[in-house]
């Protein structure tokens, strides 16, 4: 204002400057470069991961989902989000009342979104084992029903091996079989709003989980190192220790003694078997639970050795132990199984092998149905060939039909 008065009165000289666009041009150049390099607001949001987060999802069923969700919320580090819901059932958009009826097949489940860089899946499994009883099939705490079964459901196929390896690692810690479901996720429906963050909103609400454990660091014994489960075949044990009653040779016993079952040479075995069958029967490995041919097979028939064809088990003695492998209460007849001490996996177990082919079959445990003798033959599907009842005569097992039919 003062300058204008001075210029108007002739007391100051007016000076004019040429306009410049250099400053605006600089920002135009920056904008053009950012667009070309797809940075900032011109970047691809789907390719942008804040702080290099390795976001993954796993679904955990461990009884009432209120406690499971709250435990992982309190865990904090590596947990990105939790959501309660219903997994792997047979109807669409179930209500809580429908799930509690036990007729829908759903399990109360927590959808856990996590940063695998901060919280690896192995550590999630370790925390999961802290808060569930992995030996109880349809009960956790005071809650009873199929919707309370323990399970881990995955979307990424690569997670399957990690989950199963951890469960295998923990088997040594339990006398009873582990019955944790490990299955691909079929479906998941978000639970009603009042179930979300329930114990955060109602701290005094019911909870079967010891939430204080979330503040405790994982112990070394809860985490596997370089884990492998080789079977250490040792001293042969007397069959009478295990075959105490039941089928005295079976009606097919005479045929079994007379029939010619032989072990082929190693080259022929390698040619006949696929990779898994060879590793299980010849290298004493163990197949994955739940992901095998005969775990859920209950068709009438006979199970024979995949290598030699020698009879081993009857469908009549097969039952659902919930362990993820075929389970039998006894062999189809005495004298068909060899029993050996196995000191692998940091505990003493009893390995079972076929007598003629010397195939590794699995193990025997003293936790089977008491009414059937209390034994559980836990067998790898990869060691077996199943012959349906309708085909037994044609396949040369006709004399064993009475041992298969009720």
At CATH's second level, what is the architecture of the largest domain?
Answer: 2-Layer Sandwich
Q: How many helices does DSSP assign? A: 11
Structural class: alpha+beta
- Written as H for each helix and E for each strand, in order along the chain, the element string is HHEHEHEHEEEHEEHEHHHEEEEEEEEEH
Shape: elongated
Task: Compute the number of strand runs.
Answer: 18
Residues in helices, as a percent range: 10-25%
Provide the low-confidence segments as ranges. Answer: 253-258
How many domains? The number is 3
Beta-strand portion reads 15-25%
Ends apart, CA distance between termini: 112 Å
* CATH superfamily membership of the largest domain: Peptide methionine sulphoxide reductase MsrA
In CATH terms, what is the fold-level topology of the largest domain?
Peptide Methionine Sulfoxide Reductase, Chain A
Major β-sheet strand ordering: 9-14-15-16-17-13-12
What would the average pLDDT be, to the nearest integer? 85
Radius of gyration: 32 Å
Tell me about the biggest sheet? 7 strands, antiparallel
Report the CATH C-level class of the largest domain: Alpha Beta
